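Internal ticket #5521
Category: modeling
Description: The requester needs a full-assembly model to guide mutagenesis choices. All entity lines are attached below as received. Residue total reported by intake: 911.
Assigned to: D.W.
Attached entities:
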Amino acid sequence: MRDAVRDPHAIDGKFPPPERSSQIVVIGAGPAGLAAALDCARAGAQVLLVDENPVSASLMADDAPLYFGQRMTGAVQSKARMIEQVFAANPGLEEVFEAGVDVALGTYAWGAFLEGEGTRGLSGPVVGLADEDRSWMVGFERLIVAAGARDLALGFPGWDQPGVMGANGLHALLTTYDAFAGRRLVILGSDDLALNTARLALARGLEVAAVVEVRDKAQGAPGLLAMLADAGVEIITGHVVQLAEGGIDGVTRVWLAPTRGGAARAIACDTVCQAIGLVPAIELLDVAGVMLTADTARGGHVPVVTDGVRTSRPEVFVAGDAAGLGLDREAAQAQGRAAARAALDSLGLAAGPEPTLMARRVAETMAYQTDWMRALLGQGDGAVIVCQCEEVTREALLAVRQPTYLGPPSNNARDLRSLAGDGPINQDQIKRLTRACMGVCQARRCREQVALTLAVAADVPVETIPLAGYRAPVRPLPLKVLAAWDEAGAMSAGWDVWFGIPTQWTPYDDIGTDREGRHAEILGGDMHL
Amino acid sequence: MSATKTGAAVVVVGAGVTGLSAAWWLARSGVDVLVLDKGVVGWEASGRNGGGASHYQSPLFHEEQRLWPQMDDLLGYSTEYRRERLIVAVTPEQLRHYHYMADMHGELGYRVDKLDAAAIREAVPLAGDNALGGIHVFFGGHANPQRTVQAYAWALQDLGGRILQHAPAIRLISSGGRVSAVETPRGTFACDALVVAAGPQSGQLLAPLGVRLPLAPARAEMIVTEPAPLMAVGGVDGNGLYGRQTLRGNLAYGGGPHEWMDVGPLGPAARPSTPLLRNLAKRVAELLPKAAHLRVIRSWAGVVENTPDGRPVIERLTNPENVTIATMSGVGFGLSPATGHAIRDLVLDGVCSFADLGKLSLARFADLPDDWREARGWTAAA
């Protein structure tokens, strides 16, 4: 056997040990993450709990991580003040802190990297973290992802203006941030998500002008509906948004059209809250290479799990909305405890009695979202913007048209139908051609909308459209923040622009001449143009 | 569904840039051609690269330079091709290096200007005070890999060529020194001639025919920022990076260590990124300090096959004699307009009409030991 020779330009050995390590890292300080962190700490594990709140005002402006719709007050500009606010709004944070959990607020988890096929060069499992100033890597033995859910955003005429936002974005502004700038809302959707959103808004002293349901019957719990009706909220069924009108400060009123035809009606409001659905926040799980599946009973693309909390990777566990929708707060906490228990078991740490998982409220969320999308597609014309960042219209999406900066379309003979004829519809392929989903919001406002639009147009269930993959960094981070300014010496020394193969760059006529050696001597492998 | 049932005069395995360009060139000559792919067109390294369009080291270089400025018109679809490149040095070593390259291009008869610090800073608005100088390359340039791949595919279809996606070639059926058909899960496709341009999978596909094509796949990665104001010349790189500013304004850059890996007959199972994106971000911020505030919004990785000397193999085999193979060893995208032309010539005429490809023959690897990957450390880390 020869000694193992390694290519000096290969990646193995180039990554330094992570800046720090924690036995267990928990992502997300919602009910599930807090419960998981608390149980892990109480069992004696070393725990780092990471939560990105408060996120920077600039990130909020780009609707990351939630769909804030520019309806935040100036208060969010002060990160120091927001840290106090976030801590005060979430009593569970103090509890875990006192239990010995290392809590990192205002800290983004932008990537998770595990050794596997194509990633054997890592220095061990690591999660990438960042704040407003720098990024760093943290090693872990077990990762519990409780990243929650983000907002489902659907387009309609006028949706690309301030005041159109998502249910979780509104919830965060009303609770976590106490920084909501709106006064009078129209809420889209009538499932419990929408009704609870309306209830929260009323409790905060806001006006809820109406709850709008595209189907002929309101979807949520009768008790909640009755409570809202008693509070003066109009429940409007069989209607869809036709247009959100507005001015310089955003939405001023919304027009609702009956789905069965007839005259539209207008309702004055400054906020249109989309509470049609949520999307499990699986970004980190996808980046980590955890196996995913489209599961309508769990609300969309979610990790494949056993025992509810174990992923396809033995180092990674999930809990809460990121593992699938349909759990209430208590059930999410129970799942957080179950994830902690499973993680602790796998580390050989003694744990308490097996937590009991609670039932998931199974919903047909994707069919419901598709009903909304189909009705919305019936309103407005092809000029409705689908992707706000890249200004891709419905028409351009369905025609798979090249972006406008390339001038008049050259591919008039091609459209979604012709692409479908070439093979199953693939959202990533259509993304590359139209640029829908390629913008700075990292497709938070259009990923699901594009999939739903493609599904409606092609008349296939949306769950058959392959997931448009997530890539690190899963939060938009400035180059200077993401940069490894403290790069390891081995990385610098082994850096090559391409594969570091000197013979690759010899001019063809010089191959086999003595000039070849001279080129290689002077340039090494580093000669790429 | 005739495409799933019938063969073609020429079957091409692999709908990457090389296979699609070859098929398009063949279709331009009136040949009935069918392209088979294991997945979607341009899904591997062909659609995941820096988009560079200058390979001075190749015998196809002159044809590459002749064709790129015409490709949008020839294909009928946008490739986003733009000519020229500016290479920025931020260390004295880089500057010496780039100036040596400038001389090398001059000897080939192409114009490259050496720029001092003031000139490179003026030419590259996002460069900073750390820029020491650079070179201005008046040829080459860059294109959008994803759009180019689709342009080839559409142009091919416009000429009557067929593409069958999700049809991985499982086996080449041969008799009497010829390949007569390609077997896939979606049917077996007869052919008079075969082109193998299947990237990392090419070697495994050819091995049962007694053809030894030594390849080592490796993963490389890139990062992308949000759009910056457009620079007059978007083809800016240097500082150990390859890449460009896209016509949309995004900065897309790669470079640095690669990861050797093994790839099965159906291609890479995944194309993960790694924390290398932090090292890429550092170098982009050094290259273009005035863009250091821009946010990174994506990263991607692609798997590239490398030959032992990093040079392509483009050859019409003698046995089986109706098979032409092309593996480009990491420089396939830019050369693709010319590679397709060369393959067309080899398939139809047996010889390339515009360049001597003799040094790209497989024969150069005849004495390569079987453990060549291990000997160089070109294997997946333990």
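Resolution: model delivered.
Comment from assignee: The longest strand of chain B covers residues 295-306.
Ticket closed.
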